[in-house]
Amino acid sequence: MNAYYQDKWVTIYHGDCREILPRLDVIPDMLSTDPVWPNASADLPGRDNPTKLISGMFQVLPPVKRIALHLGVDSDPRFLTTVPTQYEFFRVCWLRYIRAHYKGRLLYNSDIAYLFGTPPAPCDGQFLIPGYTEDTSSDGKQSAHPCPRKLWHVKWLVKWWSSPKELILDPFVGSGTTCVAAKELNRYSIGIEIEEKYCEIAAKRCCQEVMELA
Fold first, then answer.
1. pTM exceeding the 0.85 threshold for the entire prediction
2. Which residues touch 127 (CB under 8 Å, ≥6 apart)?
3. Domain map (residue ranges) of the chain
C-alpha cells in the first residue's frame, strides 16, 4: 500500500479509511479524530449517513488503546453509540475558544472531546488528566478545509491522551491537524483522507513543520 506522503514521523494515505485500515501493518496506540457528524453543515463525504460511516470505521479499526473523538459543540452526540463497548468511557473535555462566533442563535464558544479507553501512563506534570483548555489565538480558519480544528486543541488532546513516541491514528485527517500536532509533540502518526485535495494540504503542512527541540 503506497503512502500519499511519508516522513520519519507522519504517514498519510489517500482513500476510504474503511478500505485502508484493514491493510495497515501496524497497530496505532491512539485514535484521535474529528469525524463527520449527523448534523454537519459542510458538504463532506459521508454526510448523508455519518453513523454508517463511523460504524464502518470502528468495524475495521485495529485494537487501539484509547480514543479521542473531537466534535463541535453543536454536534449531535447520539451517533457515539457506535463506539465499541470494550472502550470504557473516561471523560468529556471542553476545548474553549477565546474568539467566539455564532451560528444563528447558537453562541459557538467551544468544541467538545470524548475520551474512551485506557489512560496513558502518568509522567512528571501529567498525573491527573484535566478536562478543560482554552485556545487564546484570535485567528480564523487555519486551512482551506470547511471544518478545521484548532491546532492548540488537537495538541492538547494528543498531549494528555497519549505518550511520547506512540502512534496516533486519524482516519478522517482532513487538512492534517492531527498529524501536525503529533509531530510537534514527538508522536508518530497515520492520517487517512478520502479527498485528495485535503491530502495535498495535509502533506504540505506536515513537510513544513519543524520539530520542537523540547
1. yes
2. none
3. 5-208
Fold for the domain defined by 5-208: Rossmann fold (3.40.50)
pLDDT digits (tens, 9 = 90+) for 95-125: 999 888 888 899 989 999 999 999 999 999 8
Q: Which three cell numbers stand for residue 73?
A: 459543540
Tell how strand 66-72 and strand 89-103 pair up. unpaired
What secondary structure, in 3-state letters, does the chain show? CCCCEECCCEEEEECCHHHHHHHCCCCCCEEEECCCCCCCCCCCCCCCCHHHHHHHHHHHCCCCCEEEEEEECCCCHHHHHHCCCCCCEEEEEEEEEEEEEEECCEEEEEEEEEEEECCCCCECCECCCCCEEEECCCCCCCCCCCCCCCHHHHHHHHHHCCCCCCEEEECCCCCCHHHHHHHHCCCEEEEEECCHHHHHHHHHHHHHCCCCCC
